[in-house]
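We store chain and fold; example below:
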Amino acid sequence: MKRSLVNRCITEAAAFFAENRFVLPPFADWTPAEWKQRGSEAEELRAFKLGWDVTDFNSGNFPSLGLTLFTLRNGPPDGSGKVYAEKIMYVRENQVTPFHYHVRKTEDIINRGSSGTGRLAVQLYNRGLDGGFEQTPITVVCDGVRRNVEAGGIVMLDCGESITLTPYLFHQFYAIDGDGLIGEVSSVNDDATDNYFFEPLPRYPQIYEDEPPARLLCTEY
């Protein structure tokens, strides 16, 4: 991704969050110069990759395959600190976060709002022993209520609704009928080692520096 695109995505996401009255913490506005001035008092932010995260999964096609998110809180994988994590995501209409599963993380994905009458589409498969899609029914919990879904089935989340995604459950999602303000509440998040994509994709893209960064990404502290 070009740095200019990353900068634009962060600006647009910050505006979208503000329009939906989701207020980010102060460090969301720190410039690269301000990060340089921060010492050990900000070590938790650096260690657990809190902050801005923009990816096109190195696809080169961000409008179709990509995501803009902000990690609000997280802890160490060994459970010696916070045992939970939270993210807020700007999911653009028809922009796909591709099929992946987690081995350790359980997460709730929450449709917190939309630019229109938007819904979040979540498509599901069980993981087979060979690491691929298993053609077996799936049982998930949506806001405390069990639902049965066929292999490859899509759960539609209206604003205010959520779904619990357990380990080894393949999922991909995208917004329809408007951009989505999507929350994630989970056990500790480790994007570096606990994302297993159906197609071999990098979680973090390569950045091409065509202009200075307006904000640093969570991998750049």
